[in-house]
Amino acid sequence: MSKTMVASAALALMLAGCATPPKDIAPAYVSTGLYENLSCGQLRAEAESVSARASAAFGRQDQNRGRDAAMTTVSLVLFWPAAFFLKGDGADAAEVARLKGEMQAIEQVNRVKNCGISFAAT
Q1: Residue 110 three-state SS
Q2: Quick one: signal sequence residues (predicted)?
Q3: Are 117 and 47 within 8 A, CB to CB?
Q4: Could you read off the pLDDT of 12-71 as tens digits, one per residue?
Q5: C-alpha span between 107 and 101 (Å, rounded)
Q6: Residue 94: which pLDDT band, with cuts at 50, 70 and 90?
Q7: Residue 23 carries which DSSP code?
Q8: DSSP 42-100
């Protein structure tokens, strides 16, 4: 095997361990049943709460991604065993997926109830 092929394979394995950007994380399924009994005002408050928590979770996932990218660079340039410290996706990514799912469920109930809540495009 050539050195180029070995280096390419190592790079691919390291990048596979990097944390996913929050925008690329698919939403988890969340039942609309959690929100169907809420009034429009309660639904709006819940949407604001979920949005604030999602913003914080997106920030943590971005930090994880930045840390993994830095560790990948260090492992490629200076010290290959550093690749073993890549965290990849974990609890923060799962929380992002769950919160995206909650927001989708709230949006669906909003449409059914005609509450008129506006959601920003993500």
Answers
A1: helix
A2: 1-19
A3: yes
A4: 444 445 667 778 888 999 999 999 999 999 999 999 999 999 989 888 888 877 766 655
A5: 10
A6: confident
A7: G
A8: HHHHHHHHHHHHHHHHHHHHHHHHHHHHHHHHHHHHT-GGGGGG---S-HHHHHHHHHH
Q: How many CA atoms lie within 13 A of 26 on its CB side?
A: 2
The token pair that represents 106 in the structure block:
């709230």
Residue with tokens 């920030």: 59
pTM of the model: 0.67
Contacts of 74 (CB under 8 A, 6+ apart): 82
What pLDDT, on a 0 to 100 scale, did the predictor assign at position 106? 95
Contact criterion met (CB below 8 Å) for 99 and 30:
no
Summarised one tens digit per residue, pLDDT across range 100-121 is: 999 999 999 999 999 988 877 6
